[in-house]
């Protein structure tokens, strides 16, 4: 059956926050003059907070106010809470992988594209921030689908959004367990191992993009 829709994971496939969460916190607080040992102890304390299943920005904001607020209290300055929310939040640190925009441009000429990502609501803003929303028919986040990869429910939800059959879809992810979940549901999966190849190289290897497209860049 003809391939019509390509589902892509977001973080790790399209973009990444290359400075990780704890390091973003450390960098900010070290500049404030706090000892690294004290910072790390505060982060460990905050990690004891149970992460809820968040379904909207208000819930996400409340969670991070609690998380960063605990770090701030442990350091003796509750006023740090908003600074940490503003400067350490994942969504503000994402960068596209170098090949991604050209790949999306090329793919969108032939296929419908959609995202399936295990993510908090603020992930949705990243697509505007990085200028890639226009390439996608739908952006399906676990927060809004009320299900997470590799559960069958999120793949079912994704199919309902695009209105095609399983056999007409392909799913690309950088986590094996999510590929396995998609394939158990009946959607063909491709595993992207960025230690071995980038997204263009994977799609060229699978003959979804032509090798001639590489030469045009």
Count of alpha/pi helices: 11
Average pLDDT figure: 95
What is the overall shape?
A: elongated
**SSE string, helix = H, strand = E?**
EEHHHHEHEHEHHEHEHH
Which key phrases capture this entry?
47% helix; alpha/beta; two-stranded antiparallel ribbon; 5-stranded parallel beta sheet
Task: Compile the SSE list and pairings.
Layout: E1 5-8, E2 15-17, H1 21-31, H2 36-46, H3 57-74, H4 80-88, E3 94-96, H5 100-107, E4 112-117, H6 123-129, E5 138-141, H7 142-145, H8 152-162, E6 169-173, H9 176-185, E7 188-191, H10 199-205, H11 211-216
Parallel strand pairs: 1-4, 1-6, 4-5, 6-7
Antiparallel strand pairs: 2-3
Structure overview:
- With 217 residues, the chain is α/β, with parallel strands linked by helices.
- It has helices spanning 21-31, 36-46, 57-74, 80-88, 100-107, 123-129, 142-145, 152-162, 176-185, 199-205, 211-216; strands spanning 5-8, 15-17, 94-96, 112-117, 138-141, 169-173, 188-191.
- Helix 1 (21-31) crosses helix 2.
- The longest helix is centred in the N-terminal third of the chain and has 18 residues, at 57-74.
- The two termini are 30 Å apart.
- The model has no long low-confidence stretch (mean pLDDT 95).
């Amino acid at each position: 059956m003809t391939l019509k829709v390509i589902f892509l994971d977001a973080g790790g496939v399209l973009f990444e926050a290359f400075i990780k969460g704890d390091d973003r916190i450390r960098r900010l607080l070290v500049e404030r003059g706090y000892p690294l040992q004290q910072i790390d102890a505060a982060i460990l304390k905050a990690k004891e907070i149970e992460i809820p299943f968040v379904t909207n920005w208000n819930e996400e904001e409340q969670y991070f106010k609690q998380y960063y607020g605990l770090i701030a209290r442990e350091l003796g300055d509750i006023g740090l809470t908003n600074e940490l929310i503003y400067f350490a939040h994942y969504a503000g640190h994402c960068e596209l992988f170098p090949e991604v925009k050209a790949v999306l441009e090329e793919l969108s000429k032939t296929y419908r594209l959609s995202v399936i990502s295990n993510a908090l609501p603020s992930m949705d803003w990243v697509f505007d921030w990085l200028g890639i929303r226009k390439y996608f028919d739908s952006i399906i986040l676990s927060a809004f689908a009320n299900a997470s990869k590799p559960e069958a429910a999120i793949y079912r939800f994704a199919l309902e959004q695009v209105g095609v059959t399983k056999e007409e879809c392909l799913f690309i992810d950088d986590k094996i367990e999510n590929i396995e979940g998609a394939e158990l549901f009946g959607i063909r999966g491709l595993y992207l191992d960025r230690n071995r190849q980038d997204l263009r190289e994977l799609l060229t290897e699978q003959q979804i993009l032509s090798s001639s497209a590489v030469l045009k860049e």
